């Protein structure tokens, strides 16, 4: 089941739509607070009619299958729409010199919007559990960088991260440099990337190398295989289809009993 809300955001200065997926059987669990996974680029998660090029992450179908087979517990999944032409500005903490649409970045304001406006609405309107163990954040590309940056500027808020094809090159690896100084990390982190993300071989190599750099930072911080999974998929592109293909594995690692390593 999907429910839609619109938030008049003080931090972003514009209204923003969020879409909440409720897991099967959630109405019967009146006394149990459900964990919540917040995902950026909400247009691309559920509805082909709203998704880029008509392709979604197949979030509802995948999560429903996993919950019904008890591979993962029931989880609320919240898709946060991006800001269309403002997407780059909102998701990034610094400008991207490869994209003129990122001038005057709003990454800090976006972190406040998620944690002070979106999360309280979800807790108020749904049976959402509180605390980092029950709170996850994720996204892809700029959306993954926004999730990672939010976790860095709001340490202790999120207990799980789902990062697909993160744009770690932005700002001369600004967020990677911040990560090296971080001392408090979520309990579990899933990192996914393909080897054919762009049409340029040098950018493809850079994307994978940067994911490996982040992995090294997290390993040095003490995240072993029970806390960190890295999936490097040969030939996978920078696309909703690729992220949809890895979404089941990501959910199973973040919420299932077992752990995986790519």
Overview of this structure, please?
With 262 residues, this protein is of the alpha/beta class. It has a single domain, classed as 3-Layer(aba) Sandwich (Rossmann fold), CATH 3.40.50. It is built from seven helices and eight strands; from the N terminus they run βββαβααβαβαβαβα. The longest helix has 20 residues, at 201-220. The mean pLDDT is 95.
What's this entry about, in short?
This protein has a single domain, classed as 3-Layer(aba) Sandwich (Rossmann fold), CATH 3.40.50.1820. 35% of the residues lie in helices and 18% in strands. The model has no long low-confidence stretch (mean pLDDT 95).
Poorly predicted parts: none
Shape: globular
Helix content: 25-40%
Order of helices and strands: EEEHEHHEHEHEHEH
Instruction: Please state the average pLDDT score.
Output: 95
Number of helices: 7
| Rg calculated over all Cα atoms | 17 Å
Q: Structural class of the secondary structure composition?
A: alpha/beta
Task: Order the strands across the largest sheet as they lie in space.
Answer: 1-2-4-3-5-6-7-8
**Mind describing the biggest β-sheet?**
8 strands, mixed
- The tally of structural domains comes to 1
What name does the CATH topology carry? Rossmann fold
CATH homology group: Alpha/Beta hydrolase fold, catalytic domain
Share in β-strands: 15-25%
Write down the CATH class. Answer: Alpha Beta
**Which architecture would the CATH scheme give at its second level?**
3-Layer(aba) Sandwich
Q: How many runs of DSSP E, i.e. beta strands?
A: 8
Give the N-terminus to C-terminus distance in angstroms: 32 Å
């Amino acid at each position: 089941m999907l429910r839609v809300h619109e938030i008049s955001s003080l931090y972003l200065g514009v209204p923003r739509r969020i879409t909440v997926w409720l897991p099967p059987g959630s109405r019967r669990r009146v006394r149990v607070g459900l964990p919540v996974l917040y995902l950026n680029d909400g247009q691309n998660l559920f509805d082909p009619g709203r998704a880029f090029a008509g392709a979604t992450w197949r979030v509802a179908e995948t999560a429903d299958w996993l919950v019904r087979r008890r591979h993962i517990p029931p989880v609320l999944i919240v898709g946060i729409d991006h800001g269309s032409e403002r997407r780059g500005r909102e998701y990034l903490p610094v400008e991207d010199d490869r994209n003129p649409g990122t001038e005057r970045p709003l990454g800090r304001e976006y972190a406040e919007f998620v944690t002070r406006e979106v999360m309280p609405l979800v807790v108020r309107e749904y049976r959402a559990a509180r605390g980092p163990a029950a709170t996850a954040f994720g996204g892809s590309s700029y959306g993954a960088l926004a999730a990672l940056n939010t976790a860095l500027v709001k340490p202790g808020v999120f207990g799980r991260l789902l990062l697909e094809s993160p744009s770690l090159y932005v700002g001369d690896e600004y967020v990677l440099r911040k990560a090296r100084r971080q001392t408090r990390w979520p309990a579990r982190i899933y990192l996914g990337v393909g080897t054919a993300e762009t049409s340029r071989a040098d950018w493809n190599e850079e994307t994978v190398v940067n994911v490996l750099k982040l992995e090294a930072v997290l390993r040095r911080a003490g995240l072993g295989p029970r806390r960190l999974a890295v999936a490097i998929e040969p030939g996978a592109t920078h696309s909703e289809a690729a992220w949809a293909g890895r979404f089941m594995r990501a959910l199973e690692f973040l919420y299932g009993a077992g752990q995986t390593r790519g």
